[in-house]
Amino acid sequence: QVQLAESGGGLVQAGGSLRLSCAASANTFSTYPMGWFRQAPGKEREFVAVISANGGTADYGESVKGRFTISRGNAKNTVDLQMNSLKPEDTAVYYCAASSRRGISRAISRWDYWGRGTQVTVSS
Question: What is the phi-psi region of residue 9: left when phi exceeds 0, alpha when psi lies from -120 to 50, beta otherwise?
Answer without folding.
Answer: beta
